[in-house]
Write a structure and sequence with these properties.
10 strands, 20% helix, elongated, 4-stranded antiparallel β-sheet, 4 helices, alpha+beta, 33% strand
């Protein structure tokens, strides 16, 4: 005897902007709102964010050719040596704090004090970030890349799906882009998905 059990999950979007319940092809992220647009021809487009569990999103430091370098160390001696060995004609070095308490946060050293006692116990100046000298604002670039890297390390990666529906709610097309890092950036992509497809 063979027993086969199948489970079908349906994700339905019900919002005031749609005169029907839209059946979505993927489970939408619940923190980033979908955007519903009614076209002149009476059809609808619905872009929405999907949490990407694949782990395929690119590492924002290692997988892009920005010239930014980042190394973490287990001791201050090696970290400080790496910092002092930086060729200042090519890079500007920054000490990086790594806060770890159920999630990770990478920031420029000394910028996590607002966490109070947690900062002292769950943080350490463990890394050096080197920003190329040709960047206009080195500190801003360092903060920006560390914010994106933090999102990536914590698995905050997304895809954005756009489904099109006719006036009766029948899906007419679906397209998607994957590998977006950080909820803030992904939310902007959802609002302007056409420029990414």
């Amino acid at each position: 005897m063979t027993v086969t059990t199948t489970h079908t999950v349906t994700h339905t979007l019900t919002v005031d902007d749609l005169p029907f319940d839209a059946v979505l092809a993927h489970e939408p992220d619940t923190y980033i709102d979908p955007v519903v647009t009614k076209r002149e021809d009476g059809t609808y487009t619905v872009p929405y964010a999907v949490y990407d569990e694949s782990g395929d999103a690119p590492n924002p430091i290692e997988d892009y050719d920005t010239g930014i370098e980042f190394e973490e160390f287990n001791n201050a001696t090696d970290r400080d040596q790496y910092y002092h060995d930086t060729d200042l004609s090519t890079h500007v070095p920054f000490i990086v704090d790594h806060f770890e308490h159920s999630s990770h946060a990478y920031t420029l050293a000394g910028t996590l004090e607002h966490l109070g006692m947690y900062y002292a116990f769950d943080s350490r100046p463990s890394g050096v970030l080197r920003v190329p000298v040709d960047f206009t604002n080195h500190e801003e670039a360092a903060r920006s890349i560390l914010k994106e890297y933090t999102s990536w390390v914590n698995g905050e990666t997304y895809g954005v799906v756009r489904q099109d529906f006719d006036a009766e709610g029948n899906e007419t097309s679906e397209d998607a882009c994957w590998g977006f890092i950080g909820s803030e950036y992904t939310e902007e992509v959802v609002k302007d998905i056409d420029s990414h497809l």
